[in-house]
Specification:
By secondary structure, the chain is of the alpha+beta class. It folds into 2 domains: 12-169, no CATH class; 194-335, no CATH class. 33% of the residues lie in helices and 20% in strands. The protein has 10 helices and 14 strands. Strands 1, 2, 3, 4, 5, 6, 7, 10, 11, 12, 13 and 14 form a 12-stranded mixed β-sheet that branches. A two-stranded antiparallel ribbon has the order 8-9. The model has no long low-confidence stretch (mean pLDDT 96).
Length: 342
């Protein structure tokens, strides 16, 4: 990140992807390779060298929920480094890799970008804005080998890792937003984390009073536990209520909450494959919370902890604006960083 922030509202929603998508009519991973090749043609060699780096887990771990003024170790280029044509390709890549379901995947990312534009408009604090989110290719986008499409910034970490053309990992994946609740920015209404909050509230309020008591954690949580640079912070013991002891209707609500994270990647068959794996492990998955089960008060916290899946949602106090706002993480005990240790 440069010493001087760009602080330009790039209005990502208005950026056209038509030319990029027409030039790459393929689908899935093959289309991502085509997009990357088209972008390489448009960038000077020295700029491409900043965007496409050798694959390493150490660089894959350089993500954070902090804005750039709080975390300066991200790799790659910022969105503000691209011209309109190049940005159209970048946007097309994010759409292809994360899907276009309403309030999931790319649509959620767009709304989080809009939130940073809202923050700089409201606070004037340098460093916020959609232009300061970063993208990098770790490894060479190709049909063989390992590479990661890494995208991140304030309240955002996206990490799809491909091995020999197959999605091998989609985590760590961080989402948060400030302000929380509907806001108007860049010509649309935004409320990107509403579906997660609603899904967790539905899951918890469907528990009986005895199940709620069993699911209630003794601790109070002021943030997520397994956050950036805390890859080994998983609790040793699972706490809470075992999903295998719940009714089928209650289990369906647990799966619905998990799906709000699995749906943040695309194509659909990739997210569905991940969700099927979590469904197969559901009986040994635990849910736990602290605070209120409605997940709409400061210090409300919920986790889903399974053999593979780990999801946390934590309601934070306002940092730049009055009110509250959520932090949320999706991890996978088996496929974080595609299972790569280094």
């Amino acid at each position: 990140m440069p010493d001087k922030y760009i602080n330009t509202n790039i209005e990502i929603g208005s950026v056209s992807v038509a030319a990029a998508q027409a030039a790459c009519p393929q689908a899935g991973h093959e289309r991502l390779i085509c997009f990357a090749a088209g972008l390489k043609i448009l960038l000077p060699a020295e700029t491409w060298a900043l965007l496409q780096l050798p694959y390493s887990v150490s660089d894959a771990k350089k993500w954070s929920n902090f804005p750039p003024m709080g975390y300066r170790d991200r790799v790659g280029l910022t969105l503000g480094d691209f011209d309109a044509e190049q940005l159209g390709i970048v946007k097309a890549m994010l759409i292809e890799a994360s899907g276009m379901a309403a309030n999931e995947g790319y649509d959620e990312l767009e709304q989080i970008l809009n939130a940073d534009d809202y923050l700089i408009a409201e606070t004037g604090e340098q460093g916020f804005s959609s232009s300061n989110f970063q993208i990098a290719f770790l490894g060479t986008p190709a049909a063989t080998g390992t590479w990661e499409l890494q995208f991140g910034g304030h309240h955002t970490a996206f990490a799809n890792t491909y091995i020999d053309g197959q999605l091998a990992g989609a985590t760590p994946s961080f989402r948060g937003v400030e302000p929380f609740g509907p806001f108007e920015m860049n010509g649309r209404e935004n409320d990107p984390m509403a579906q997660e909050q609603a899904a967790f509230a539905a899951m918890l309020t469907a528990l009986t009073s005895s199940e709620l008591a069993a699911a209630k954690l003794d601790q109070t949580f002021t943030n997520i536990v397994v956050g950036p640079q805390k890859d080994d912070n998983f609790p040793i013991d699972r706490e809470g209520v075992r999903a295998g002891d719940l009714t089928e209707d209650q289990k369906a609500l647990v799966i619905n909450a998990i799906s709000t994270y699995a749906a943040d990647i695309g194509p659909a068959e990739e997210s569905e494959a991940i969700l099927r794996r979590y469904e197969a492990e559901l009986d040994e998955t635990y849910i736990a919370f602290s605070g209120s089960p409605t997940m709409d008060q400061e210090r409300d916290y919920v986790r889903i902890d399974g053999p593979s899946v780990w999801i946390e949602y934590s309601m934070q106090p306002g940092r730049s604006l009055p009110g509250i706002h959520p932090h949320s993480i999706w991890r996978d005990r088996e496929s974080d960083y595609a299972g790569n240790a280094e």
